[in-house]
Amino acid sequence: MGLPMNERKAVTGETRGEYHKADKKEKSLIPDQYLRITGYNRQYAIRLLSAPPAKTATLVLNGKTVVLKAEKKPKPKNQLCKPVYTRETIARIQTIWRFYWYTCGSYLAELIRQTIDFLCSSRTPNFHITPAIHAQLLAISERQIDRLLKPAKNTSCGCTAYPEPQARPPPSLKNPRPDPVHR
């Protein structure tokens, strides 16, 4: 690493062009030369050389050469996606989840797919399933059901499927031994 950073960048730019134009046999030899010059780790050097070249344009304005570099658009931070499932769909999933005795998402998804006709036509527990909710219930994944039910599972719903955690008994009560009889 005897070269300063600006010289290493210049060598990288030149070598990258050669690396992209080279055939497979030459591509195995080019990093060896590049490593001797720069002193980089081999994998890091290959990653640098195989990266696409930066998009630049050279212009001559008023007799001066100007190099323009394309900038990447910054990704917006914390960009929330538009929710796919409506509140009504989530409410119906929670109702169906309670109806099927708090089963996990993988079983619930399969139960919904197999009994969707019953759920739509049922009048005793009326699930109020519209055609839009019907389509969403058929398309939802097991993992997504678990994600949507997580807030309901975390609240104390009074169901026996998720009992409150109990304190562990002390070790002395786990394996009780009778007191020795003194004679």
Quickly list its features.
two-stranded antiparallel sheet, mainly alpha, 183 residues
Describe the structure.
With 183 residues, this protein is mainly alpha-helical. The chain has 2 domains: 5-69, no CATH class; 87-154, no CATH class. It is built from 8 helices and 2 strands, in the order H-H-H-E-E-H-H-H-H-H. The protein has helices spanning 5-21, 24-38, 42-50, 87-99, 105-121, 131-139, 142-154, 171-174; strands at 56-61, 64-69. A two-stranded antiparallel ribbon has the order 1-2. The chain is flat, with a radius of gyration of 33 Å.
Overall SS class: mainly alpha
Low-pLDDT stretches are: none
How many alpha or pi helices?
8
Q: Round the Cα radius of gyration to an integer and report it.
A: 33 Å
